[in-house]
Amino acid sequence: MLYAYYSSEEKSISKTEKDLFFCIDKSYDLYHYLMALVIEIADYAENRIEIKKNKLQPTEEDLHPNTKFIDNQVIQQLRSNNQLNKYIDQKKLSWKDNEGLIKDLYLMMVEWDLYKNYMANENSSFVDDRKFVEKLFSKIILISENLYIILEEQSIFWNDDVEFVVSMIVKTIKQFNELTDPNHALMPLYKDQEDYDYAKNLIRKSIINHDELRELINEHAQNWDMERIAFMDILIMQLAISEFLYFPSIPTKVSMNEYIELSKYYSTEKSRNFINGVLDKTLKDLKKEGKINKVGRGLIGEK
Description:
With 303 residues, this protein is mostly helical. It has 2 domains: 172 residues, no CATH class; 91 residues, NusB-like (N-utilizing Substance Protein B Homolog, Chain A), CATH 1.10.940. The chain is 67% helix and 0% strand. The two termini are 33 Å apart.
């Protein structure tokens, strides 16, 4: 969103704010949408079983299929989850026009060694079911090129968020157990009001304090012409330094780690090292000048 702000002829903070929260809302749509995808794969697998059973000359295997995947307890819990079903219905999210993707994901899955081992293991347990679904998201769904193509066609906001959203889905599933019922709450859009305010304040403070932040970057990017530094690298550092200076509850170590991690997705290997070096120098000087004021948990490791 910060990149969009500077790229736009209309420099409107309020519009950027609105776009930011729209983007976050779309990520929450994707969270539910991808969760429903695993149910679609199970439905496809069940339909294939029924088709084989109704063949003119079904084999013994056709008549007595291995239903371990379609009976997976976590998939059944997702299928009956009230929040998931209500959200999908309200937002009118559907995979019905993407049968090709469902088939491709199913075929990828059945050729997967982990799937074969899972299906061959007669000693089924809830933990096994949960681990399999977690891996299905991270090892099959996440790497599907067709999925990214379809998501890009539906929303320009989704492709960059897939990996993050899948990690949130896996985190959600890890909370499921044998007693999880249909009323089990999924992850909320915002943890609390502080979570919402953080997003709003970060974009605002990064823009409002543009001159001070860019000067700090320029000062600590020794022997580098600002015009030659990748624009995305500058924005990553601008956000990180904003957290150093204007967010007293966030430890600087946390900010450093988060933005270096972020740079892995938006910068090159050389850029990551460069960003790390500039942020490290900036932070040391800000501490010497007494400009880092952290409170609460942020005091840990700040001296």
